[in-house]
Amino acid sequence: MLSVGTLTMAAADAPRSTALDSPPPAPDGYAWKVIPELSDEFTGTTLDERKWLPKHPDWKGREPSIYDPSNVSVKDGMLHLRNITRLKTLDSVKNPEKDVWVQSACVSSRGRIASYGYYAARMKASRICMTSSFWFQGEHSEIDVVEQFGLSVKNPEEKMLMLMNTHYFPQGWDTDKATPQRWQMPTASGETFHVYGVWWKDEKTVWMYHDGQKVAALTPGGPFKETQYLFFDTEVFVWEGLPTIESLNDPSRNTMLVDWVRSWKLVTKGNMDEENRGTR
Predict the structure, then answer these.
(1) Of the four listed, 18, 47, 242, 246, which is most buried by Cβ atoms within 10 Å?
(2) By C-alpha distance, which of 36, 61, 41 is closest to 51?
(3) Is 2.60.120.200 the CATH number for 39-260?
(4) Rg of the chain in Å (alpha carbons)
(5) Is there a contact between 192 and 13 (Cβ–Cβ < 8 Å)?
(6) Which residues are known to be catalytic?
(7) pTM value?
(8) How confident is the model over 150-162, as pLDDT tens digits?
(9) How many Cβ atoms sit within 10 Å of the Cβ of residue 182?
(10) 3-state helix vs strand vs coil in the chain, percent to 5
């Protein structure tokens, strides 16, 4: 992966109500407008299924893990994505890297409606060897805002890194053009909450943010024109190592937490002013 330097922020655990709740300054002549369908404070007791699905719309998950809707819940003012296993030992699993033995979690937007705009989520990674991810995907393009590891067996340093990427695969994954980047964080992804953001500016420009600070500029491998789903999910990446049965069954570390997700699109100030007058 590529490096974008080692600049860090002093702020660690971002409080709920700060400037981090807002997007970067809008360009001259424009204003940010909230996208309600892709924003949620997760303050209720159940997932708002008018906006979200507790699964991926057309994928079961990455082996040896598989998405299980029962691992998605909303409580304590947060979205919880849990990882578990029903096994006591791996003795019955012929190939632990291929055969499914881990139940993971995924939350998807109801529609493929994300496009150019700014998107941010305040989240805390699980502390097991599985991803805690915030990402977008269309038919042949993908933005990985973060694929975090609170713990990686094979790459221990990654718990301190913001892991970002874009993918462009119009002819399929065999010809994928990826743009991986990483950024050194001030605290580990599984130790405290971080605000991860992306400004998808246009078909050639994707900027990444950590706690309100721009930390990377990615140029996708092809034109990012199509709308995408918004996802939160957890997966096993076998090249990082496998989670242990003990860690999967430990509720103090087996869950990815999302405090909130907020989304905005740019509109001209004239249109925003007209809308504001209409609501008075």
Answers:
(1) 242
(2) 36
(3) yes
(4) 19
(5) yes
(6) 142, 147
(7) 0.91
(8) 999 999 999 999 9
(9) 19
(10) 10, 40, 50
